[in-house]
Every structure is written in structure tokens, then in C-alpha cells.
Design the sequence.
């Protein structure tokens, strides 16, 4: 059930197209018994494709608070993010997973696919490491009323419960936002 949930969420968090909608009966069969994913499928398969596509772009491409790149939440646009991306890429390579051209390894559908294929230990490690980002994304989707929140609910329900330290870190990250980094020469006093 874990692998199936991760696999379904991975697929359903990609840009919706006609091929995805055509697979509706198979997706419903695979999601049987998984209430959040079934609720999402009800919306996806009951909404005109153009409206689903518009919602996807507005939700994931135009709002930083609900981006699908997990390392951004923890590292922002800093050098540490580059290192985190490299570590993910190496982890995938060690398990024989290769990324499609130009795809970043922290894209949530990619991370979920890896979890489904590699299993609970190594496969789910990136999800656990980026749990804060997942929770912030889940929260942003819930606040905006996006049907995609159902997919994050299904994923987060499988992961270990949040600790008090996790909750404190998530609250701080929600208030402060991702880290920022100034690189180069200070221009203070420069005229």
C-alpha cells in the first residue's frame, strides 16, 4: 500500500494531460481504499482538462509557497541547496534511477517515484529528510483549498509522525521563509 500510494501521488502530481485522464479507470482501481487519493481523482476526472491544467499552473508554478521542489523549503536558493540536489542525485544513481533530461532530483514526483521503487529504508529517506517542506506544502495547499492537498495528506499519513522539534522547525520556516545567502563582495559604504 505504501509503494502504491507513493506511485499514485507521483503520477498525479505531474502536469495533467489527456493521457492521465484517459487512465482514469486504472487510476481509480489502483486507488481503491485510499480515500484521499480517491477524493482527488473525483476532482481530477470530474473537471474539464483545461481547468485542471490552469489550476496546476496557478498552484505549483506561480506560487512559491506551493512549489514542488523540496530542497527549496529547507535551503532556499543557497549553495547548500546545490549540495542537497547532488546528494539526491547520487542516491538515485546508487539505486539505478536516472532522471529525465533537465529534471531536478528534488521535484516531489521524482522523490515519490524513488520512494515507491526503492522502498521504505533508502527510498523514503528523502521524504523524511524533507518532511518540513512536505508539511509546508501540505499546509499551503490546504489553505488555498487545492484538491492537491489530498495527495499530500495521503503521503504525509504514511510518514512517521512529526515530533515537537519538527513542529517548531516548521513554524519557524513558515514565519522566516527559506534561507537566503549573499555571495560576493560587500558593497556597504561603496559610493
Sequence:
Amino acid at each position: 500500500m505504501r509503494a502504491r500510494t507513493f506511485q499514485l501521488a507521483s503520477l498525479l502530481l505531474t502536469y495533467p494531460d489527456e493521457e492521465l485522464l484517459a487512465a482514469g479507470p486504472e487510476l481509480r482501481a489502483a486507488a481503491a481504499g485510499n480515500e484521499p487519493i480517491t477524493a482527488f481523482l473525483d476532482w481530477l476526472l470530474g473537471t474539464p482538462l483545461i481547468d485542471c491544467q490552469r489550476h496546476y499552473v496557478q498552484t505549483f508554478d506561480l506560487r512559491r509557497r506551493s512549489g514542488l521542489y523540496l530542497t527549496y523549503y529547507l535551503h532556499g536558493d543557497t549553495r547548500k541547496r546545490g549540495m542537497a540536489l547532488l546528494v539526491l542525485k547520487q542516491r538515485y544513481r546508487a539505486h539505478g534511477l536516472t532522471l529525465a533530461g533537465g529534471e531536478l532530483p528534488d521535484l516531489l514526483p521524482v522523490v515519490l517515484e524513488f520512494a515507491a521503487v526503492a522502498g521504505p529504508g533508502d527510498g523514503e529517506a528523502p521524504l523524511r529528510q524533507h518532511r518540513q517542506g512536505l508539511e509546508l506544502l501540505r499546509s499551503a495547499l490546504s489553505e488555498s483549498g487545492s484538491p492537491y492537498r489530498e495527495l499530500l495528506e495521503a503521503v504525509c499519513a504514511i510518514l512517521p509522525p512529526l515530533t515537537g522539534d519538527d513542529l517548531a522547525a516548521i513554524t519557524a520556516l513558515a514565519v522566516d521563509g527559506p534561507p537566503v545567502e549573499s555571495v560576493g563582495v560587500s558593497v556597504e559604504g561603496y559610493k
In short: The chain has one domain: 2-176. The CA atoms of residues 60 and 67 lie 5 Å apart. The mean pLDDT is 90.
